[in-house]
Amino acid sequence: MFRHPGAIPGQPDANRMQNAARELYEAMKGAGTDEKALGRIAANFNFMERIAVSQTFQQMYGKPLEGELKRELTGNIEHMLVDMFQDKYAVWARLLHKAMAGAGTNEKRLIQLSLIMSDYDVQQVSQRYQMMYQKDLYSTICSETSRSDWAKLVKGWLRGNSTGIADPNQIAQMLHTAAGGAGTDEDVFVEAMCNASPEVYRQVNAVYTNMYGKTLADTIKKEFTGKSEDAYLLCHQYLLNPALAVSNLLHEAMHGGGTDDELLVFVTMAFSEFFRGQTIRQAYQPYGDIEKHIKRDLTGKYEDVVMILWGFK
């Protein structure tokens, strides 16, 4: 499995952590909480640094930051800022567990949480899942999912066994053949998406368009339906540019009858540090203006904090 490895942060700076802990304390001191200040502090650090800030806060003030945030905040803004200062991989594992708990699996959420992982993310989330629930993540997903087309992709993405195929022309021809005829050979799509590096996959995408006069995305939309279409398109976008996949999930969270706050909080917590500002604005363009959509769907301090975390304020 060769996919985008994600960011592996270095050692946090102790002085910055202490200053941030002090600023957090000041933002929550007195009669009212300054939610915008909390959002700006969170936006100034990567996820490993935010964990260090949380630990420093405990050392300096003798009480856990999570407890103070929960005491001072409510609703979605509480969920957002509490998660921002936690181990994001533990949050990821918790949401995966929630998606598979109870009488039925939330298949849509399982797709969204799984097909947005880098290699490093898969490793870290799997470790947290094992620690938190004493279960193997891959085995649990296998037991909770069917043999549907989307489930094959999720399992292949998490397993990522390389076949060594790296010729873009060969892969493009295989995909075209797999999409031809009466039925789609989804196993070929799984093999290509789960084993090609992003660089090779981008070449495959270009070769496919040149050879057959249509995009891979168009073929996916034609050959798959429902959750499988959603899954293969999300994976396709991630391989071309992770910011496109993140934009897809942001759009999913903010369109339709109501806001999917759990998804919006997760995507912001996990990815805003990588794709904020102009990067996410450009990637989101196929769906419209991201700032307008945030302002349309959210209100008040929740809107302010989300705008700050994505670099729009």
From TrEMBL:
Transmembrane segments: none annotated. Gene3D superfamilies: Annexin. GO terms for cellular component: cytoplasm; plasma membrane. Keywords: Annexin, Repeat. GO terms for molecular function: calcium ion binding; calcium-dependent phospholipid binding; phosphatidylserine binding. PROSITE patterns: ANNEXIN_2. Belongs to the annexin family. This is Annexin. It comes from Hexamita inflata.
